[in-house]
Amino acid sequence: MGKWFNKLINGNPDKKDFSKADLPDNRFDQFFDVIKIRFTGLLTVNLLYLLFLLPILLFAVWVFIIGLPEMSEILQWSDEDKFQQFISWLNTFLLICIPLYTVTGPAKAGMFYVIRNWSWGEHAQAGRDFWTEFKRSWKTSALYNCLSAALVYACFFWTFNAMYAPGDGMPEPLKYVIMSVVTIVAVVFLLTDVYVFPLMVTYKLNFRQLLKNALLIALAQIPQAVLFVLSVAICIVLAALLWQISLVVVLVIGFALVALAQMLLANHAFDKFNNQLTGGTAPVRRGLAPKRDKLGRVIKE
Does the N-terminal or the C-terminal CB of the chain have fewer CB atoms within 10 Å? Predict the structure, then answer.
């Protein structure tokens, strides 16, 4: 009994102290390690982000419920006037989404900043540090989200004007040129977007440098960026098919999990391009155990 009380008060003397060697060896293991250690914190930052995302989500749900009967009617009767009316309705919806998505930028920066610290194995308070980065990056993050939403609207506008313009419309070669340009812009944007917020909360960059570095890293890491975008797309499809189950998971912790995976992917890229980003002055493999060779010897980075 005395030994039991001694362990309860002073801890187990046979249990070794936590060291860097006990950290996860790779980003995949680190993903689950952060979830295990910071689960409550992930719930908190997800909720904080959701508060700012809620207006656009509620607006989308409201429009979807209102527009669903009209959409069904258009698909059944293929009336050109009704189809043009639907396109006009969708055009208005995307325009209104631009300011609604803009206000989510600072909250997204706050979420990424907290998750970045946790991915490095550093301390961060879900509430206090969220608001610190919210106030620090609100201009840059809001501007980026505004331009992102505007780009989505522009791609929609040019696509439907090229393919479904009333009357004779555009010449066929011009349609293909516009569609090709829109597709290239959309793909480049999706790949670049993977690294924008991780860069924003990690390095001190102006807006031009932020976009330039995100684009260069995305082009240098095309397989990884494409894999991440496809994985998110698959998750969205599965969530849509199983929305009764997935809706709760997405709203409770889903956004934070995606941000965590995105941050870990970016951390890998930041380590790889450490010389280009910081001149090699920043530490690498933060949050991971030291890299070892086959004999178990620590490899100096």
Answer: N
